[in-house]
Design a protein that fits this description.
The chain contains 4 helices and 9 strands; from the N terminus they run H-E-E-E-E-E-H-H-E-E-E-E-H. The strands form 2 sheets. Strands 4, 5, 6, 7 and 8 form a 5-stranded antiparallel beta sheet that branches. The relative contact order is 0.25. The chain is globular. It is an alpha+beta fold. It has one domain (5-187).
Length: 195
């Protein structure tokens, strides 16, 4: 899959403030799945009652994660090792925290280097699966998790397993953020306010 800069920017808008519900990897099949609850609006009508989406990445080429007992910026925080099959449980232990920062795709060169020397798990399946990356995090009171996944392609599915075209997913997220800044009442109730 070739992602343009416009695609990457749109995906980042659509995932900003999304809640991470799950992240798991099948190393045998070189597939990863990440489940999010996203902020999205249709062109008309109410927001969806169930705004979960699942990204399915394949083939994957590498996944690295760092679970640390401390703040994200604490270079002395203890690193907790875990195995790739424990990733889902580790993510779910954060009880669904939002991600933010407006940048998630293909930022590994600047983001991964911050914690690359403090890895809990690092799996590599070269040579394929390294075209793109997604970088996510979860924050807790006394712990922090960083994840970077490299992949070649992905699809997005709704809660019923139907594939969502990339353009539609991006448009729904953009409508939500545009609606927030324009005072659309449909964006209320998430604890996010325009600044």
């Amino acid at each position: 899959m070739k992602l343009t800069q416009e695609d990457i920017d749109g995906l980042s808008v659509a995932l900003n403030e999304a809640t991470v519900l799950g992240f798991e990897v099948s190393d045998q099949h070189r597939v990863a799945a990440a489940t999010f609850e996203v902020l999205t609006l249709p062109e008309q009508g109410n927001p969806p009652e169930d705004s979960r989406v699942q990204f399915i990445f394949a083939p994957i080429g590498r996944i690295a994660a760092s679970l640390r007992l401390g703040r994200w910026d604490d270079d002395t925080a203890q690193v907790v090792p875990f195995t790739i099959d424990q990733l889902l449980r580790v993510v779910q232990n954060f009880r669904g925290q939002p991600i933010y920062g407006w940048e998630f795709f293909d930022i590994h060169q600047k983001d991964f280097s911050r914690w690359a020397d403090r890895l809990s798990v690092d799996c590599l399946w070269e040579p394929e699966g390294l075209s793109h990356s997604i970088t996510l995090f979860q924050e807790g009171n006394d712990k922090h998790l960083d994840i970077c996944l490299w992949f070649d392609d992905f699809i997005i599915k709704d809660p019923h397993g139907n594939q969502i075209p990339l353009a539609n997913f991006v448009a729904g997220g953009k409508r939500w953020w545009d609606g927030l800044y324009s005072g659309d009442k449909r964006t209320e109730g998430h604890g996010i306010f325009p600044y």
